[in-house]
Amino acid sequence: MSSLKRDHENGHVVDDGEQQVKRAKMDVREEEKEAGPPPEEALRIAEIAARAEARAAARASATGSNGGRDAGGNGGAGGIAKGNDKLPPLPTLIEGGAHEVKFLTKKQREQLALQKLQEKRAAEAPSVKRTGMAMKDVGKGGSAGDGGMGPPRPGSHRDRDGREGSREGGWRDGARGRASDRGAREERERGGRGLSREERERERLERQRQEELQALKDHYLGKKEVKRRVVKPSEKFARIFQFDWEASEDTSRDSNPLYNQRLEVTPLFGRGYVAGVDMREQRKTNRYLEALTLRRQEEERRAEEEAGVSRGDRRDKEEERRSFMEDMRRRREAEARGMERATIGVLGQHWRDKSLESMTERDWRIFREDFDISMRVGRQRVLPLRNWEEANLPASLRKTVEGMGWKEPSPIQRAAIPVGMGRRDIIGIAETGSGKTGAFAIPMINYCLTLPAEHRTRTPEEGPLALVMAPTRELAEQIEAQVAILIEGTGLKSCSGVGGKPIEDQAFALREGVDILIGTPGRLKDLIDSRYLVLNQCNYIVLDEADRMVDMGFEEQVVAVLDTMGGLLKSENEEEADRQADAAQKGEQLYRVTAMFSATMPPAVERIARSYLRAPATIKIGEANSGKNKRIEQRLIFTTEPGKRKAVVDLLTSPKKEDKFIVFVNAKRACDVLARHLEQTRISCGILHGGKSQDQREASLEAFRNGVFTVLVATDVAARGLDIPDVSHVINYDMPAKIENYCHRIGRTGRAGKEGLATTLLTENDSEVFHDLKNYLESTDMKVPPELGKHAAAQQAPGTRNEDGKIMGQKRDSVMYSKR
Fold it and tell me: What are the boundaries of the region Disordered (predicted)?
């Protein structure tokens, strides 16, 4: 290039390149004037293309001048003269082949550029057509894609085509075309401007479809649009604190007299009464009749004045009115006094002082609440007993009851005896020591006494008239002893059938004839299997401590005895069962009567009840879980296994010699070991467990009742049903594995409404029952010691996982296995 600058002959080549750049710029400006300012990118590309063309021309010129000088040197003056002349524009250099170079003249270059331009316009024809249609849709103002310009001038395209056709370097058209295409595409992407009506409609429908799909999705996911709540002007200041004001500032009282009597209610225009308010007090303040009479008298006075009645006649009329008002007031006061005597005098009396006919539903409700009685007797109304006179017992039985010292019936007796006397099936749930024996024994004896005499004469061949089943021998013997006292003077016979005694002796008593038989399920089944016992005419059966019999595994024997009984079961229809019970009470027909008494109702007992009881009357005394005796004070002592012996000796050292203790242990062997230890410490005690013979067990119970010794060491055999009077203290030397057994153990004290005390010795080995024990203490309103309340085992039931995922202690088996 330095040689080109020094050589003056090459000046026209440089000038030609600059002129081409200027012409390109001028063409661009003309295009801008006609079609608006082109994009900056198109202008920049045009300038770059012009510079490239100038450099290509310079290179071609330099190559030609060098060749001319060489020719001038070789050809002499002629060559120099040719070099001095003005050179024509040099042709463009292109590659014709792999090793061939072809030069194009200016005319050829223009033809080539024109051909390229026509090809480009043919390719852009569809897009130009769409743009024109869009401009027609928009209107005269032009579309947004046109940059806000008006419609194009007619012939502008032809003029521009002509100028472009005569312009050198058609490459500028291609650059501008590419720039305009890019700008139009950017415009369409920015706002959809330049699209046809069909395309815009399709876009609108697509947006609408997407919105509907999003709405369905939000509805499926449960999303709710949070709407702004519009607060009413009346609610805007409702929650703002309002300061107090004095009553004297209330101006509404002066403006409206209604506010002075806003609390006065006059139902039926003064003739009615307001519910919940004493009617007598309302009558005292009611002045409706008096106001009505005064108004009528005032109307009579005005009528007399208008009629011109003489003064003497009006004086007489006025005297009559005054006397009438006095009589009305006297009648009203007399009526109030009579009502007070008739209502207050009766309603104010206690239910004990009222006659049976004067008892109202409210009185019976108060009566049931006083004794905590809950009864569900079905369709017929059965009233509980207030005293023994209302039971209508036979004279001999009534005399026996008085001789036993039963001044008043116990709660379970008040509710169960009337139901049993009506030959209804009973489910009785009550705590231990509540008088359940008398509750079922008295109706059973009354049933036997009301039967025809021929039934009693057939007892040796047809079997007893009534049957009582108990879970243990001791309980059966206790019931038989009490029944024997109640049937004195009635001519009835009773007998017990329990294990541990010769079965032949019991068979001989049955052969002689027995009216009432009391036994355990196992021995009764043995007597039936041995053909010593038949139940052909036994239509009255009592299951005492039914839950205990099921727990001890006697369910199969109980069902076998029930299936052996004769008689007809009542209908499962409640209405028909009530009719059959009435017929049985009148002696028209015999139907089986089943009474079931228990402290709890486990599922197995409910299953037996559904199978053999018909429309039973359910009687509950106390809470639903009647074993929770709140009269018993419960104490807990935390110690160790070696420390138990010292603790029990300290507890048995009582200052009162008349106190009686029952010490419960879990195993028979431990019972014997503890008894020997107490004997060594000079504490006389008896032993009661299943390993002893029946005679030994009866002897221990008799000696304990008579006060020969005041301490009885026993297993759970003595925990259910035994009525040992005056037991002041129960000690759980071993904590039972089930809270139900704990409930029955402590129930040996605090019987018949008396206070009692129960002490339990606890060790860490008893932690699996800490949770149940804590709940039981809370349910009986007892204070939970901190050692138990804060213990980890008392926080969750055994078998559940704590917060760390650790399984708490498992429950122990109720059956204790010995180690060999």
Answer: 1-93, 115-207, 300-336, 789-820
Please give the residue range of the domain that contains residue 414.
375-621
Q: Do 655 and 598 fall within a single domain?
A: no
What is the torsional sign of CA 231, 233, 238, 240? positive
Q: Does the residue 820 lie in any domain?
A: no
Q: What is the DSSP secondary-structure string of 676-712?
A: HHHHHTT--EEEE-TTS-HHHHHHHHHHHHHTS-SEE
Tell me the CB-side half-sphere exposure of residue 610, using CA atoms within 13 A: 7
**How is residue 275 written in tokens?**
């519910």
Cα atoms in the 13 Å half-sphere on the side-chain side of 44 = 4
Two tokens at 537? 């005419």
Cite the DSSP H helix spans in 685-797.
Answer: 694-706, 739-746, 770-779, 786-789
Contact 688, 714 (CB under 8 A): yes
Running DSSP on this structure, what letter comes out for residue 801? B
What is the separation, in whole angstroms, between the first and last Cα of the chain?
122
Write down the H helix ranges in 36-94.
40-75, 77-84
Handedness of CA 566, 568, 570, 571 (dihedral sign): positive
> Nearest-CA neighbor of 718 among 600, 545, 495, 598?
545
Quick: pLDDT tens for 290-299: 888 889 999 9
Residue 134 token pair: 């869009």
The token pair that represents 164 in the structure block: 């472009």
Rg from Cα positions in the chain = 59
The band of 193, judged by pLDDT with boundaries at 50, 70 and 90, is low
For CA atoms 121, 123, 124, 130, give the dihedral sign: positive
Answer left, alpha or beta for residue 685, where phi above 0 means left and psi between -120 and 50 means alpha.
beta
Strands 101-104 and 92-95: antiparallel
Residue 781: CB atoms within 10 Å: 8
Q: Check whether residue 644 and residue 614 sit in a common domain.
A: no
d(CA 627, CA 747): 8
- The answer on 71 and 180 residing in a single domain is yes
Residue 421 has pLDDT above 60, yes or no: yes
Spatial CA neighbour of 600 closest among 620, 571, 586, 573: 620
Q: Does 489 lie in the same domain as 579? A: yes
* CATH number of residue 386's parent domain: 3.40.50.300
Task: State the pLDDT confidence band at 234, using cuts at 50, 70 and 90.
Answer: low
Q: What three-state secondary structure class fits 176?
A: helix
List, edge to edge, every strand of the sheet that includes 660-664.
632-638, 756-762, 727-732, 660-664, 711-714, 685-688
> Are residues 421 and 446 in contact, defined by beta-carbon separation less than 8 angstroms?
yes
d(CA 151, CA 140): 7
Q: Which domain-ending residue is among 621, 641, 675?
A: 621
Residues 509 and 555 in one domain: yes
| Torsion-angle region of 520 (φ positive above 0: left; ψ -120 to 50: alpha; else: beta) | beta
User: What is the spatial distance between Cα 83 and Cα 471, in angstroms, rounded to a whole number?
Assistant: 147
- The DSSP annotation for 542-567 comes to EEETHHHHHHTT-HHHHHHHHHH--S
- Cβ contact 415:384 at 8 Å: yes
- pTM of the prediction? 0.47
Q: Which of 325, 344, 363 is the last residue of a domain?
A: 344
Scored b (16 or more CB within 10 A) or e, 617-642 reads: bbbbbbbebbbbbeebbbebbbeeee
Say how far residue 432 (Cα) sits from the centre of its chain. Answer: 35
Contact 599, 627 (CB under 8 A): yes
Residues 607 and 659 grouped into a single domain: no
> Tokens 């399709």 label which residue?
202
Which pLDDT band, with edges at 50, 70 and 90, does 551 fall under? confident
pLDDT, tens only, 251-273: 555 556 655 555 566 677 666 77
Helix or strand run (H / E) with residue 637:
strand 632-638
